[in-house]
Amino acid sequence: MMTRPYFTFTDGSMLEAGTVYGIGKNYAAHAREMGGDVPEAPMVFIKPPAALLPDGGIVVRPAFSHNLHHEVEMVVVIGEDCADVPACDAQSVIAGYGVGLDMTLRDVQHAAKQAGAPWAVAKGFRTSAPVSRILPASLFTHIPDFEFEVSVNNSVRQKSTTVLMEHNVASLIAYLSTVFTLRKGDCIFTGTPEGVGEVIGGDVLTASMKPCEETLAGVHMLTLSVRVAAL
Ligand code: MG
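The joint structure predicted for all components is written out below.
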């Protein structure tokens, strides 16, 4: 039976998942590797809730694509319905933080860019949004920074810190909530650092994330492991 996608928090609580917002080019070095600059306003795309994939899942590349990329990202889960949230109040609408993989059909995305067409297929295909368990926001007195990375078959491919984001979490929530009504269970993939690359059938992707703050880093480490289906 199909079940609705949901987030599982490290304290055992669960939350039905809603819209997945993705942010493009939010790390300068990645914007450069994609051949562009960081946009002044956040670049936003959307994945449907059914794109979400829990830890241990299988990423399935659709047969019409021949270039599946990993993009590791910090994910923010929204904890209440809200609109027009000022950046100074953003923390109050956050339910928690996780690590995710914005799986991207790079060839399809490239063709869409060339054609001036939307990215929904390249970014929102089934299994395109693996997300770890979620650290409750209540563990932190402020919006924390995280170190995060992803390995493919035990070899590190991307490693960075949210300190390097161009538009930080508070400003992303402020921006998104002026355009959209954010709802409890929505999440934001906050952008990927440099080092994106291809994965193929049978590859195992392991992402991890921990707070930058020393005293929290050891106890609040998250991991996410998914495998790419053989085609
Ligand atoms: Mg991304």
